[in-house]
Specification:
The complex is a heterodimer of chains A (250) and B (353). Chain A has 250 residues and is α/β, with parallel strands linked by helices. Chain A is built from 9 helices and 10 strands. The longest helix of chain A is centred in the middle third of the chain and has 22 residues. Chain B has 16 helices and 2 strands. Among the domains of chain B are: 192 residues, no CATH class; 48 residues. Chain B has a two-stranded antiparallel ribbon. Chain B has 353 residues and is an all-alpha fold. The chains are: A alpha/beta (250), B mainly alpha (353).
Amino acid sequence: MLEATDITVRFGGVVAVNGVSLTVGDHEIVGLIGPNGSGKSTFINALTGLVKASGTVKVDGRRIALGRPGGVSRRGVLRTFQTPQVDDRLTCLENVLVGLPGRDLRTLPVAWFRRPAMLRAERARWERAFRALEFVGLSRKAHVEGGAISYGERRRLELARVYAGEPRLLLLDEPAAGLNHRETAGLVELLTRWRDDGGPSLLLVEHKIDFLESLCHRMIVLELGSQIAAGEPAAVWAEARVVDAYLGTL
Amino acid sequence: MSVTDAAKETHGSRRSQWRRLDSLFAGSGPTILAPPVYRGRQWPFLALVLAVGCVVPLAFGGDPYHDGLLIQALTSAILALGFFWCFGFGGQFTFAVFAMYAAGAYVSVWGAAHFGGFWSGLVLAMVVTAAIGGLTRLVFVKLAPIYFAIATLAVGELLFILFRQWTSFTGGYNGVSSIAVPSVFGFRLGTPHRLYYLMLGVLGVFLAATVALVRSPAMRDLIMSRDHGPVAATAGLRPRHLTLIAFMVGSAMQGAAGSLYAHSSSFFSLESFSVDISLSVLLMVLLGGMDSVYGPVIGAAVVVYLPELLRSAQKYSDLFYAGLVLLIVVAFPGGVAGVRGIAGRWIQRARSH
């Protein structure tokens, strides 16, 4: 599904990500962990073209140009952000509608010259976006503005947007950050339900270890921009360097 | 808990049950799901605005001077609406408004002379200004908004220099005087009155195009692209593409305003165009309000008519004018179009005390 090779990101003289490679297979859930500043988010930003990077990214064997946002999203790779990115003045439903796939019948020429067809497609879209809100448990807030809901709800709203986008691979950048215990459990339940439903492959960036263990097939550990360990969760935790990186030398 | 309380409670829960049942039947229906923007009455309101526009000349027109003001208000409204598309929808401030206005005027006069009349001139003016606007946007797409604004100022000034030097096309400061008179189906629109209705028609079409965008999925895609560009891109939108189109449409409207200005004059020269136009258009849009598609129209009317109203104050009129502008900007950040909402909140607050 996703094949990233030798991804390197430099900010001035600092090497934030240093030659990291990883693959994510179909329906696989991969965790990307590491202490603060280890380059996890930067790596995700490089994959999605938000920062300039060198290396190669292939989706389904096809090479994607780096450094240009939108390259991977058109191949079914979507992402969420560390701080949930939703528009404050659009309603929750509209925030989800933005993420629906299918660009035709929602352009300006269509709005001018093909309104009946546009409105027909619109009605179907409202339905789909509403389903996505139901999936994350936000359907009651469908017509509430994005700025008027709580932080945890914004996270779920962002998740609803990518859910509606029907991704084949989803990159989640610290999806549990800022969530309390109950909300985190709800998120795990949500992701599990989605997985069992034939959901997308996942690349999870996280701090919360229990969160990762309950979901991941494989884990990759970064420290100071480089990969220091990879493998099944239990094996990764057994490595001394990982424990050092996380807890300091004991 | 008393008996009445309990009764009230059961009554309340029954009512909520009914509501739930009600929403079970109607709730999943598409009308309930429609985002709020589709539930507004934008189309009837547009019709009302245009109807009012039709009777306005009967009240304010009559002599050449007042007819001139009416026409000026309408050209300004179209120009401001064009700027609104660039700035409000496209999210890109532009100082090149005056140059688009001038380009629209010159191209339209030339096109009308070479391709059979006013309408081809108007269309050509819109195509050319859309192309100039789009090209400017494409060339400077990587600049941060404030630097892009400066770049548009440079582009505007360059175009102005071009028009000054290229006298065979523009006549420079000597001006152009052989200008085609607009006509509709062979009906000559020679009088200011008829020109007014022509402009009102064009403004109506542009406002309808604006309302059609607002009531469409393209608008929310555009909002997301404008305010959260990178996020929109990772969600599969093409933010640059969308904002570019808004910018081009806005530029075309500015060009149309220039064309209408040209064809409603018997003579105009380079003196009609200066960067002051860009500033006063900015003032119109801010005064009118950025949150409403009628903001530019209201703002244009205010900027054109306010000096008239203040005439009796004679030498203090400038002071009043500046004071009023400050008052609107400070007390009503949503502009005149936002006054209703703010006044409503004031009244509510006064009542609750």
